[in-house]
Design a protein that fits this description.
The chain is an alpha+beta fold. It folds into 3 domains: 2-55, Structural Genomics Hypothetical 15.5 Kd Protein In mrcA-pckA Intergenic Region, Chain A; 63-126 and 208-231, Pseudouridine synthase I, catalytic domain, N-terminal subdomain (Alpha-Beta Plaits, 2-Layer Sandwich), CATH 3.30.70.580; 131-205, Alpha-Beta Plaits (2-Layer Sandwich). Helices cover 21% and strands 27% of the residues. The chain is built from 6 helices and 17 strands. The chain has helices at residues 4-10, 16-24, 117-124, 144-152, 185-191, 224-231; strands spanning 2-3, 28-30, 33-34, 41-42, 49-51, 54-55, 63-68, 98-99, 108-114, 132-138, 155-156, 159-160, 165-168, 173-178, 197-205, 208-209, 219-221. The strands form 4 sheets. Strands 7, 8, 9, 10, 13, 14, 15, 16 and 17 form a 9-stranded mixed β-sheet that branches. A 4-stranded antiparallel β-sheet has the order 3-2-5-6, with no helix packed on it. Helix 1 (4-10) packs across helix 2. Bound molecules: uracil. Residues 103-104, 107, 184-187, 200 line the site of uracil. Uracil is lined by residues 103-104, 107, 184-187, 200.
Length: 233
């Protein structure tokens, strides 16, 4: 059992003082009974909590998917630039959410934002070797030499990369699959072949693909099926 004000505030939409005011206006009920004090206790998993008669779905954790646009930093705060959290709908703003993993500021595509630290740790742990797939565009044509180099293991200044996949999809574009996530890894790998990455877009993490209908800058909760794909990683 937990205090009702704590349960409601943990959902992110209302602050503790908002909840206090809702309660004093008799707008909150637990199992059909109007709550008269913030210290009333309820079971976050079993009690039916309503605000203005509308049931509150209490979620322990939230799992969001963002189609990251350019210009946002993958962090919870930054002194110079906006972070990806600026793109998260307000209703989650009060939760302790953070981006699970990093994309460079100029990289776009699939990003998971959550408040489930254990799950984030699981998908990011290097020993899990979760595969990430990217669409890449270069300033020079993609070559077979790059593709075989990626398979053999490109040597960077912080060590040889694990085998990576490179499928040529156009004269200047490729699909790259990586099982590591080193700093600026794809840019540095192509740099070894004298190529500059002009566009980088993450398409997938494990079996979870960025849905085509999630527009750039849009952020929504994962469906149950999508969440299962992440939890399987
Ligand atoms: N590799 C990079 O160079 N940048 C990213 O954002 C992701 C992978």
């Amino acid at each position: 059992m937990e205090r009702i004000d704590k349960i409601i505030a943990s959902q992110g939409k209302y602050s503790r003082s908002d909840v206090k005011s809702l309660i004093s206006k008799k707008r909150v009920a637990v199992d059909g009974e109007i709550v008269k004090s913030s210290s009333v206790k309820a079971d976050p998993e079993k009690s039916v909590i309503t605000i203005d008669g509308i049931e509150l779905t209490v979620k322990k954790f939230v799992y969001l998917m963002l189609n990251k646009p350019k210009g946002y930093v993958s962090a919870t705060e930054d002194k110079e630039h906006e972070t990806v959290l600026a793109l998260v709908p307000d209703e989650y703003a009060g939760r302790d959410i953070f981006p699970a993993g990093r994309l460079d500021r100029d990289t776009t595509g699939l990003m998971i934002i959550t408040d489930d630290g254990a799950m984030a740790h699981n998908i990011l742990a290097p020993k899990k070797h979760v595969q990430k797939v990217y669409h890449v565009e270069l300033d020079i044509p993609v070559t077979e030499e790059m593709a075989s180099g990626f398979t053999e293991g490109v040597e960077l200044n912080d060590g040889v990369c694990k085998e990576a996949g490179l499928e040529i999809t156009g004269e200047y574009s490729a699909k790259v699959s990586l099982k590591e996530g080193r700093y600026h890894q794809i840019k540095r790998m192509f740099g070894c072949f004298g190529a500059k990455v002009t566009e980088l877009h993450r398409l997938a993490m494990g079996d979870l693909w960025l849905p085509e209908d999630l527009a750039e800058g849009e952020c929504r909760e994962l469906t149950e099926e999508e969440l299962k794909l992440l939890q399987q990683l």
